[in-house]
Amino acid sequence: MGISLFSLGLGMLVTSQPVSADVTATSTSSSAVRTDAISESSSSAAKAETTSASSSSAVKAETTSASSSSAVKAETTSASSSSAVKAETTSASSSSAVKAETTSASSSSAVKAKTTSASSSSAAKAETAAITTAGVANADSQTSAEVTADSTSTSQVVTNNSNNQNNTAQPAGNSTSTTQSTNQANSQISNQGQLNQFATGFVNRAISEGANVDPNNFTQAQIDALNKLEKYSTTKKNTDTTQFTYYQFQQAADKLAEVDPQYAIPYFKADQIQNLPAATAKDGQTGKVANMDIWDSWPVQDPTTGEIANWNGKQLVIAMMGTPNANSNHLYLLYNDYGGDNFAGWKNAGDIFAGYRGDKKTGLEISDDQEWSGSAYPLDDGSIQLFYTHNKYETKTINHQNHQRIATANLKMKLNADGTISIASVDNDHTLFKGKDNASANGTHYQTFDQWAHNVTMFDGHKEDFGGADNFAMRDPHIVKDSQGNRYLVFEASTGDDDYQSGDQIYDLRNYGGNAKFQLESLFNLINNDYSVKDKVTGKMIKIGRDMRVRASQANAAIGIIKLGGTENNPTVAEVYDPIISAVMVSDEIERPDIVKIGDTYHLFAASRLNRGTNDAAWRKANDKVGDNVVTLGWYSKDLTKGFKPLNGNGVVLTSTVPANWRTATYSYYAVPTRSTDPRFRNTVLITAYMTNRNRVADYRNKDGKAVLDPDFIQENNGEHNSTWAPSFLLRVNPDGTTRVLPYVTNQGVWDFNNATKLNTNIMTAKADEAYLPWEKGVPFDNGSILGSGQDWVDSMPSDPTAPTEPTAPTAPTAPTAPTAPTAPTAPTAPTAPTAPTAPTAPTAPTAPTAPTAPTAPTAPTAPTAPINPSQPTTPTKPVQAGQAAATNFVDQRLPQTGETDQQHMTLSGLLLLAMSSLLGLFGMTKRQRKE
Questions:
Q1: What is the C-alpha separation between 175 and 251, in angstroms, rounded?
Q2: Is the C-alpha dihedral spanning 535, 541, 542, 544 positive or negative?
Q3: Mean of the per-residue pLDDT values of the chain
Q4: Which of 132, 319, 356, 570 is the most exposed place for a label (fewest CB within 10 A)?
């Protein structure tokens, strides 16, 4: 027991002992926190699922860096001093950037997609319903349907109390600024309660992008319009259809006014342009030989490759022709040597349908029964399958009377002995498609004539026939075969019940495109009857707001597609698809679609007059700058029936460069593939068109301030200047979906661009003052006669565009020299195998300090030997030898006491030792307790 207590006491004297390994560091100043902790200190890192964050915490989110406040999920490329937020946004203002689908965030927060609450600089849920003062929405958003309404809160609307108090939006431009001016501060607006969540978020987004409006001053009409956005912007729409947007329309007008060389049609020398000799022929309607106009034209093509067909050594073209000012609109067959580019070589085989339609007695066609634009391809039996627009003039309709339908006919051809061509017969002529795809009276995908003709609408409380703003379209069929031999027709149409024309379309933000700023300004312009622009002729402000709203309510242009069945010479409709392009609310006319396949990609081109659109301010600006507003639009897709993307990102391909009444004005652009192997012309299409607008517009001259036709004057100036075929030119179509006009121009009337085709360098010019005839400059006229807009026009000289430069022909690459045969490499010597490093000796484990050994218990003193009996003599000691030390005997000299024994001596010694051990043990315990 004494030894045990002694050992315990010594153990408690140890002053330095390691703590158990199960105990982790807990110091608040520099400790590491477990990764699944649910709260953290002021500088800790929070786990991704943490539901609250402190004022400077960083939230997990695939975020690579954070600012002084917080970092949030991401894909954001830069963050400001506050925070970064996911957004497809590349930079943020001084507060934060907000994902386009986000409609609410705290004052300086970044948003984590699954976080439900945040403090002043933490993450807020991405789908809440309002945007803060510095939230930035995706500038390219084309719909506010992306703005969700999951949150039940309504945020404060940002206002601007210093500018534009009446909220009359300026013409919407293409601003994409995302920095809010400093004078836009948070302030409660008096009508905030009148805006629903969707409208509130949308307005905030527009203001953050620079919209110069003050919600305090919203009119009731503006509030009502904003509150309609959610209903009409979130309805289900067909995603296979590509929307041509209001913003893209604005881009087309802007590029036209800028005379941007990427898109600008080349200038042509007016004095070099000739009438088409083959257009002087017998008019199939009047029966008289006349110098006819020629306009919409198309070649007989291979329906798979699009290349010009070789029909018995001839190239064939079908064209609309007719005597000027005689309402004569019929189809004629023209032909030339295959591959030739001789303008004078074209011959006329006559009116295709004369004798087959119209007056049976005279064999003449009639003005009320017309054939319009289409397409054609050759069949194996030598016949031509024609697809065309059959138009009849209806007299018993409420609206306009051009009843269009898609038709087809098989043309039996005859090659005569003298090399001329004639039409032997027209067979299987029938209507193919009128827009109906089911038994209902209306068209689901496409508007029918009956739907359109009886579309009398109450507008502002009055009956309206819209004064020509509402057009019906079911025309211009273009034949395409895919690689499996399936036949399709692409055509101009109008949207049907699935996405019908309506005043409600004004409130669908998907029709607008652009950012929220553009959408808000455009919406306010469309609903403002007093929206005005300055008239170029009178210099006065004219109201165009109501006209724009009327047009937007009725615009529903579309490019449709159907699949054909039946036989090739007597086709039927097998399947009706959704439109591939829609311009609902934006334009009422996108015409003459044609498809050119380059590689594995389909390229869709279509012509349009911008004055058929709804943005009056935009197309009037183009008219004022150039004097015309015609364009070619384009899209591309690998799927023929859906998924088309706009070429150049905005759909703009070609823009006009001269006034509509000049000799060199062009329209009805039609693209065909090229056959040249010259590397300069790789990835190009040939653009064909007609030149000089119809009905002798180029012959008007200024007489006493009026535009007049003077027959004597015309004869003195080389006769009539009729519509004719324009010089063709090349357009490069790049694999990345961009295009550019090239400075390569051919003779007039070239359809097949091949290795033998000659470039005409004399017909193109870089000078605008060479593009008109001497008497055409300054002639006043109402361009409604040409453009249908009713806008008075005064000639203005368009600015010279930058002449497109000829791209440098790629030089043949230097043939690479044969490389020096490499010598066999010296076999590398096997590297000396590294010796295994000497294994570090295990460090000597510190030995536990040696416990002090218990002091050797003093041995019991040697019991004194019994005294020698004196009666016995002591034995004499052995004498010491020389050199030997004498032994010393330590003998107790004490004499034994009476009664004393050896056992008594031993007991006393043990008690002394026990007492000493107890004292030492008590001393050790006391010291250990003090240490603890």
A1: 12
A2: positive
A3: 74
A4: 570
What contacts 24+ positions apart, CB below 8 Å, involve 330-333? Answer: 330/284, 330/285, 330/354, 330/365, 330/370, 330/371, 331/371, 331/386, 331/388, 332/281, 332/284, 333/411, 333/421, 333/423
Closest by CA position to 148, among listed 166, 136, 131: 131
Instruction: Dig out the tokens for 829 from the structure.
Output: 């010597």
Residue 261 has pLDDT above 70, yes or no: yes
DSSP 424-462: EEEEEEEEEE-S--SSSSS-SSB--HHHHHT--EEETTE
> How much is the pLDDT for 758?
96
d(CA 732, CA 686): 9
Nearest to 35 by CA among 25, 26, 43, 47: 47
Share of the chain above pLDDT 90, in %: 48
Whole-angstrom CA distances from 896 to 184, 365, 499, 867, 902 are 120, 171, 137, 7, 11
**Inter-CA distances, 508 with 138, 523, 931, Å:** 18, 10, 82
- Report the pLDDT averaged over residues 536-551: 84
pLDDT for 333 beyond 60: yes
**783/16: higher pLDDT:** 783
Provide the 3-class DSSP secondary structure of residue 827. coil
224-244 burial, b at 16+ Cβ within 10 Å, e below that, comes to ebbbbbbebbbeebeeebbbb
Residue 391, both tokens: 């138009």
What the block records as the tokens of 118 is: 């945040």
- Longest Cα pair distance anywhere in the chain, in angstroms? 192
DSSP 781: E
Write down the catalytic residue from 591, 624, 628, 776: 591
Q: Compute how many other C-beta atoms are within 10 angstroms of the C-beta atom of residue 492.
A: 27
Residue whose tokens read 């023929």: 640
- In this prediction, residue 716 has a pLDDT band, given cuts at 50, 70 and 90, of confident
Per-residue pLDDT, averaged over 801-811, amounts to 52
Q: DSSP states of 601-635 as a string?
A: EEEEEEEEEGGGBS-HHHHHHHHHHHS--EEEEEE
Q: Retrieve residue 353's tokens.
A: 């349908």
Residue listed under structure tokens 């957004």:
87
75 as an active site residue: the answer is no
pLDDT band of residue 846 (cuts 50, 70, 90) is low
Residue 588 a catalytic site member: no
The catalytic position among 146, 283, 296, 699 is: 296
Q: Is 606 left (phi over 0), alpha (psi -120 to 50) or beta?
A: beta
C-alpha dist (Å) from residue 741 to 177, 259, 766: 30, 12, 14
Is the pLDDT assigned to residue 780 strictly greater than 60? yes
Q: What is the pLDDT of residue 875?
A: 46
Residue predicted with more confidence, 401 or 283? 283
Q: Give which of 575, 595, 605, 192 is closest to 375, Cα–Cα.
A: 595
Q: pLDDT band at 895, cuts 50/70/90? A: very low
Higher pLDDT, 885 or 812: 812
CB 257 within 8 A of CB 622: yes
User: For 387-396, what is the mean pLDDT?
Assistant: 86
User: Sorting pLDDT into bands at 50, 70 and 90, what band is 100?
Assistant: very low
CA–CA distance, 798 with 757 (Å, rounded to integer): 31
What one-letter code names the amino acid at 7? S
Give the type of residue at 235: T
* Sequential DSSP letters for 538-555: T--EEE-HHHHHHHHHH-
**Beta-ladder partners of 691:** 666, 724
Place of tokens 């000659």: 758
